[in-house]
Write a structure and sequence with these properties.
Layout (H helix, E strand, L loop, with lengths): L19 H14 L5 E10 L5 E12 L3 E3 L5 H7 L2 H21 L6 E5 L2 H5 L3 H12 L6 E6 H6 L1 H14 L2 E7 L6 H4 L6 E4 L1 H4 L6 H17 L2 E5 L4 H9 L4 E3 L9 H11 L3
Helix pairs in contact: 3-5
The chain binds ligand C2E and calcium ion (3 copies).
Length: 279
Amino acid sequence: AKELGRDNFQFYAPEFNATAQEKFLLQEELRNALARAEFTLLYQPQVDLRSGNVFAAEALIRWNHPSLGLIAPMKFIPMAEETGLIVPIGDWVLHEACRQNKAWQDAGLPPLVVCVNVSARQFKEKNLISRVVDALTNSGLDVKYLELEVTESLIMQNVEMAVATMNQLQSLGVQISIDDFGTGYSSLSALKTFPVARLKIDKSFINDLATDENDQAVASAVISLGQKLNLRVIAEGVETDDQIAFLRKNNCDEMQGYHFSKPVSAHGIARLLYKEQGG
Ligand code: C2E
Ligand code: CA
Ligand code: CA
Ligand code: CA
């Protein structure tokens, strides 16, 4: 997927070594960013390891700041969580991802599942379910093409509450993945009660997969756990052939990472799907 290169924005703003005042200013700007339409979504393809098909794409937010340029989520999501701004921002992400996915389908491209990250604060909102319903209704997207990614550590903060919310989402027909799996210490007995479709092996176990025996042990354990619980397993952060060889050998279902594609614009996904279709 070399020609996708054009869409890879690499010019992130340098670290803000933010003083209290700078932080305050940035917070003010974050508050205005939604109204000024400064957010954008990139999408990273997810690939079936057996067929090689792209079946899904994860929506990843970027803040296109007027003077600082494109800002990565790690630089503003924590602040958005602290201030509660993550709730309207997350709502925008949900609506935009559903709208875009429907637009790809309306353009005649092969249907994809769009995966949306849900933050802790957003997940705990009382009206999360109705916000999800709104996003589906407004976009006209069939619920089977929406998946939510919830981190393992978020679930573990309050398992009972999380399972109740996930059950409601599941009864709507929304699929759920557990993101950053392996970092959040879920017990096996808890895991089997989670109404989820998929585990995402955290990047930190994939980075040195070719050489680190501990990471190999964790990755293969997660894959066989997934098989036993009838959950699909995806590896994130896959960059090398060696990592893919290990994942294939251990029967991992799916992968996502720079090896196949970095996150790209909506247009980049359309081109990729068009080519896959034989266009
Ligand atoms: P995440 O959900 O674990 O997303 C995966 C991150 O890994 C993305 O970083 C992606 O660009 C990066 N990545 C994917 N493949 C590779 C690879 O092969 N190598 C390396 N080194 N990195 C890879 P990104 O886009 O900077 O997002 C970082 C985090 O910000 C996400 O981690 C997620 O926690 C959060 N985030 C992103 N978008 C949203 C959003 O719309 N809502 C919320 N609540 N959080 C978001
Ligand atoms: Ca994710
Ligand atoms: Ca992740
Ligand atoms: Ca992560």
